[in-house]
Amino acid sequence: MRRLPLVLALASAAVVVAGVGLIGPIGSALAQGANMSFFVTSVNPGGGANLGGLPGADRHCQALATAAGAGGKTWQAYLSTSGAGGVNARDRIGRGPWVNAKGQLIANNVDELHGNNHLTKQTALTERGEMVMGRGDAVNMHDILTGSSPEGRAVAGSEDTTCGNWTKGGADGSAIVGHHDRMGLRDDAPSKSWNSSHGSRGCSLEALKTTGGDGRLFCFAVN
After folding, report:
1. Percent residues over pLDDT 70 in the chain
2. Domain assignment present for 64
3. pLDDT, tens digit, for every residue of 93-148?
4. Is 173 buried (19+), middle (13-18) or exposed (0-12) by CB count in 10 A?
5. Would you say 177 and 198 are in contact if contact means Cβ atoms under 8 Å apart?
6. Are the CB atoms for 194 and 90 separated by under 8 Å?
7. What is the number of domains present in the chain?
8. Is the peptide bond before 97 cis (omega within 30 degrees of 0)?
């Protein structure tokens, strides 16, 4: 009977050690999520390029970030709008620096983001830390909605470049997309552009898929 306290103590110690082993990786993953300040959305909200305007797109970014443990930051979508009062995507995303879910640097500031950034297929991860399929994979999903010029600004002119400022989800309209994997049909600047490669063939989710996308967004932490 005298051995019982010792046995219980050893058993308790074993539980604590096992608990530390389990909590360690989980805690590390949560810490990474909390530090994340950039991601590619893992899913489209369901309406293709009809995101409910900029407010709806921002809510989508915020919801995904919250689910990944980074809801303590204010998240906004990298999207421009056109027409009167047009908004530049580059003006919506804070000042940087931005890192992905694995802590890898994307860019230190807005100028670097639109210059020599670190965006590649390997670093443009989702909020879950997963790579997004691109050109050469079983399903090409490299088209990311932006509605922006290479400099991250709204595009002038009467042509629809934002699917009606992110309110159209049908066959009509078009939105400028970028390639998160920096690859395209040609070896030129637009094909390699992360934010301004070409226009989509429509605004529905089905239409977006025909040009190599599935309605994903770039999300940045503003603060």
Report:
1. 86
2. yes
3. 999 999 999 999 999 999 999 999 999 999 999 999 999 999 999 999 999 999 99
4. buried
5. yes
6. no
7. 1
8. yes
DSSP 91: G
Is residue 25 in a domain?
no
Residue 194 lies in a domain: yes
Record the pTM.
Answer: 0.86
SS3 210: helix
118: left (phi over 0), alpha (psi -120 to 50) or beta: alpha
38, 220 in Cβ contact below 8 A?
yes
Does 88 map to a domain? yes
Residues 102, 41 contacting (CB under 8 angstroms): no
Specify the CATH number for the domain of residue 80: 3.10.100.10
Give the total residue count for the chain.
223
Sign of CA dihedral 164, 165, 171, 176: positive
Q: Is the pLDDT of residue 3 over 60?
A: no
Q: Which residues constitute the domain of residue 107?
A: 36-221
